[in-house]
Amino acid sequence: MKEQTPVSLLDISTYLPGEPIGAEYYAQFAESDDLRDNVMFRAPKFRHHVAEDETAIDMVERAAAGLIERHGQDTIANVDVLITHTQQPDAPFYGGGGGMAHRLGMKPNWVIDLHNGGCAAFVLGLQLARQLLSSGAGKSALIAIAQNAAGQVFDQPTVRPKAQASVPGDGAAVGLVTLSDKSPILDLECRTYGEYAGDMTLAVDPPRKWWQPGVGELHIGFTESKITKVLARGNRQVPEVSYAVCDRIGVKPKDLDLLVTNQPNRVFLRNWREALELPKERHRDTFDECGNLFAAGIPINFDRAISDGTLKKGDVVMMAAFAHAGDFAGAAAIKWGGRD
Fold first, then answer.
1. How much is the pTM?
2. What's the average model confidence in pLDDT over 6-35?
């Protein structure tokens, strides 16, 4: 029987919109908030916001520029599978995959928009890409992530005075996955916790459904009770999926060369690396530069680790994240083959 060709995360490129916005921007709007002192909402020093007229498609196009420069327009145009995730879709009734494909000059056989992956969407995209390419759907896939809620949802006039508003930041990333042994995906673990799926809610005053007209601006319905649950779930789930992958690839968590996670706040970052027994220098984050990047956090931090030399050829990287209020978590191990 012929040995199956490995699937690799060949390369990645990213984009941050606009100039960094300092913490003082939100300080000027801050009002009394019962959750202001909660560890979930301790603000980063900086974050980036999408421009008022900037779409998710624009962001993905700008993020893809690095891939096109290094691999050529034809490589991107000939991609067989496009997998996308947009935190704040440009239109409510359909995803952005079709528009992104058109903007990048692609005619893929598969266009798949992901929503349920949340902050772990890049890992879910890797799992889907590996499965499709291994089963003969094509030779290459593109995973496109756009986090664009910070400058749209969290910067609304009645939302930005809230403690939750100062934490998110915007950014985009595009990863190229191919049938090759260059930077193989060693293993993955994705878990759905459906019992928590309804715990992330939207709040508005006066109450209404998200699609109904009204004067109140939507924001995330955090409460002390919900935050306690989310902290407990996130602290447990990210190490659990990471340990599961480590066990299968035969690497102890403390021997990983690099950990890359989503970055909701400093507390999660600290707890996760302590659970995996890793020093801070082997857990890459950009929280104080970019804030909570949601699904874009893993690929943006991965790209930074490549660019600044933290990640070296032959290193084993663990990507891990949990989503929403804990309804999904995923981890993926990759042996990095270097960027040519």
1. 0.97
2. 92
